[in-house]
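Notes from the 1:1 (GR / supervisor)

We went over the backlog. Supervisor wanted to see one worked example end to end before approving the batch request, so GR pasted a single chain during the call. The sequence is below; no edits were made to it. Supervisor asked that the structure be written out right there so they could see what the output format looks like.
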Amino acid sequence: MVYSFMKSIFSMKFPWPLWVAMLMALNMVGPLFFIHTLEAKVVLGSTLAGAMLMMIIFCRYGFVRLMGLGHIFWMPVVIWL
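Structure output shown during the call:
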């Protein structure tokens, strides 16, 4: 499941796989430096929730635009921060 998802991402044209990999790395590792703060926990939680939703959508429908719904968890975080 995760392997086929990553394979789909890295099959995109050049700048996009680099951009996606960079964002995923920063959003997963960045909050770990500040994990003692509430903000870092919320960012990490919203990242994981979005990733889970995207994986569910990917398993059910494949690599479709509907996967953008995973970003819905970021709306309250951006407003709050």
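Supervisor's comment: Helices lie at 2-9, 15-29, 38-61, 74-80.
Batch request approved.
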